């Protein structure tokens, strides 16, 4: 895993244990921009960890903590779904993806262009 993924995991751990509503809300608000920089494998790993967290803690969480974990999971899944959709659109020739040279196959380093056809 890269430093970004480790940083996200540590930050999530600190914020969720801290218990401050403001800290957690701030973390959840900044999460979408942070996960844009992760690779697909890092994102999937984080999704699995949050899913496991939900299963393990289940009844131990109070309602607001449950909501925070669910929001965290939803944000991660939305990013995963968006990446999947972009790849499918590329596969069907609807958009063209341009990656930076040497970049891994992940959408954080990708530019998207709508393909146009000329008559």
Note the topology.
Elements: H1 3-18, H2 21-35, H3 40-57, H4 63-91, E1 95-99, E2 110-114
Antiparallel strand pairs: 1-2
How would you concisely characterize the structure shown here?
By secondary structure, the protein is mainly α. The protein has helices spanning 3-18, 21-35, 40-57, 63-91, and strands spanning 95-99, 110-114.
Architecture overview:
The protein has 119 residues and is mainly alpha-helical. Helices cover 66% and strands 8% of the residues. The chain has helices at residues 3-18, 21-35, 40-57, 63-91, and strands at residues 95-99, 110-114. Strands 1-2 form a two-stranded antiparallel sheet. The longest helix is centred in the middle third of the chain and has 29 residues, at 63-91. The model is unreliable at 101-108 (pLDDT under 50).
Give the key terms.
119 residues, mainly alpha, two-stranded antiparallel sheet, 8% strand, elongated
Strand order of the largest sheet: 1-2
Uncertain ranges:
101-108
Radius of gyration, in Å, reads: 17 Å
- C-alpha termini separation: 47 Å
> Could you tell me the strand content as a percent range?
5-15%
Shape: elongated
Q: How much helicity do the residues have?
A: 55-70%
Total count of helical runs of at least 4 residues: 4
The number of E-state strands comes to 2
């Amino acid at each position: 895993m890269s430093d970004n993924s480790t940083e996200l995991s540590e930050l999530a751990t600190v914020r969720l244990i801290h218990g401050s509503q403001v800290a957690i809300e701030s973390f959840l608000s900044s999460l979408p921009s942070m996960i844009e920089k992760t690779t697909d494998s890092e994102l999937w790993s984080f999704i699995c960890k949050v899913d496991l967290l939900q299963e393990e803690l289940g009844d131990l969480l109070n309602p607001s903590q449950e909501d925070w974990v669910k929001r965290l999971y939803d944000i991660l899944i939305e990013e995963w779904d968006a990446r999947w959709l972009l790849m499918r659109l590329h596969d069907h020739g609807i958009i063209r993806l341009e990656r930076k040279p040497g970049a891994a196959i992940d959408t954080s380093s990708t530019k998207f262009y709508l393909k146009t056809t000329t008559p």
